């Protein structure tokens, strides 16, 4: 069995969640605060040069590993064990049914046999892992097993980045799974949260990832080619700036007076339209006809006006995710700064939660 870096296994030693995205690297360290309360010890981010990561693929290992080294140093942590994420498009997942009562070795043989039917690569080219989900719904003699497979080279790229930065990768997860784990901690605190249908929109630089779930079960998952870089490109064209200058001025709010009317408002309208279309597609492609709560996450979630625009268009209760809600804050964490940055850390937070199984 070629192991996907303990994709599903829990981890108990101190562990950093390390999210490598198109736009940057984000790090989160969580600790046990006692009395079933977690504590956010540290968090930090570091931007990546354009082209270092493209469509989830590591194009420049040296640039990314250097950013990881900087973010680790900036955070002030001493922990060197990390949980990393893979983009969903890079991982094949499949739920299969196997006979109950198999030993671990027998399970591995069965999983490899089943995997060969679903994976369009030779098994020696992939990293493979599996998790027993429980008894099969309609058959007491069978179990549900989730298998996951990724091209070995893509896993090894991320492991190499950690090693080059002086860190050790001990868990490899899937970004969307990590985000859902981070969100479930929030929805579990909501009245009736387990029964509600929750839609999560992670709006990144290039892609918006959509997950719809209820009671811990994922009902729908999809990616749309829409993200904050579209607004940045509009700024580049309108004001003759470089991409880096445009991105910096966008974040700092240092753009001309006509920016909101001519660029920001059309972007917000387009974003709300994308969200509305995605929800309609969920309705037409599944048996479900409602969404009870919509959450926004990612680096673009706090763009001024976006929350209200989406809430007004969808007529659904909408909130920005705060993945550290209900946690204690360590002495290194500045609450005011955290409030402005937290939605971008959902995946990193979910990865850090792997320490607690």
Automatic annotation (TrEMBL):
SMART domains: FtsA. It comes from the Bacteria. Residues 15-183 form the SHS2 domain. CDD domains: ASKHA_NBD_PilM. GO terms for biological process: cell division. It holds the Pfam family PilM_2. PANTHER family: CELL DIVISION PROTEIN FTSA-RELATED, ETHANOLAMINE UTILIZATION PROTEIN EUTJ. This is Pilus assembly protein PilM. It comes from Massilia psychrophila.
């Amino acid at each position: 069995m070629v192991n996907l870096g303990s994709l599903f296994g829990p981890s108990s030693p101190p562990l950093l969640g390390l999210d490598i995205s198109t736009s940057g690297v984000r790090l989160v360290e969580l600790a046990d605060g006692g009395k079933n309360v977690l504590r956010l010890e540290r968090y930090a981010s570091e931007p990546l040069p354009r082209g270092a990561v493209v469509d989830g693929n590591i194009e420049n290992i040296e640039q990314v590993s250097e950013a990881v080294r900087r973010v680790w140093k900036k955070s002030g942590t001493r922990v060197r064990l990390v949980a990393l994420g893979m983009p969903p498009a890079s991982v094949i997942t499949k739920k299969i049914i196997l006979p109950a009562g198999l030993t671990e070795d027998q399970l591995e043989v069965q999983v490899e046999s089943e995997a060969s039917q679903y994976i369009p690569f030779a098994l020696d080219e992939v990293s493979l892992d599996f998790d027993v989900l429980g008894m099969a719904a309609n058959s007491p003699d069978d179990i549900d097993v989730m298998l996951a497979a990724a091209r070995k080279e893509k896993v090894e790229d991320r492991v190499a980045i950690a090693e080059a930065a002086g860190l050790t990768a001990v868990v490899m997860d899937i970004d969307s799974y990590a985000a859902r784990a981070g969100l479930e901690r929030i929805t579990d605190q909501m009245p009736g949260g387990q029964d509600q249908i929750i839609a999560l929109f992670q709006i990144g630089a290039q892609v918006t990832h959509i997950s719809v779930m209820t009671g811990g079960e994922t009902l729908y998952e999809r990616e749309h080619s829409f993200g904050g870089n579209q607004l940045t490109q509009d700024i580049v064209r309108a004001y003759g700036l470089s991409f880096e200058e445009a991105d910096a001025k966008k974040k700092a709010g240092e753009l001309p007076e006509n920016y909101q009317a001519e660029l920001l408002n059309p972007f917000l309208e387009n974003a709300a339209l994308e969200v509305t279309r995605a929800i309609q597609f969920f309705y037409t492609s599944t048996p479900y006809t409602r969404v009870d709560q919509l959450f926004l996450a990612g680096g673009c979630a706090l763009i001024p006006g976006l929350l209200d625009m989406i809430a007004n268009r969808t007529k659904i209760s909408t909130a920005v995710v705060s993945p550290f809600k209900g946690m204690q804050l360590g002495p290194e964490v500045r609450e005011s700064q955290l409030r402005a940055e937290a939605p971008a850390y959902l995946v990193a937070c979910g990865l850090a939660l792997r320490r607690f199984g």
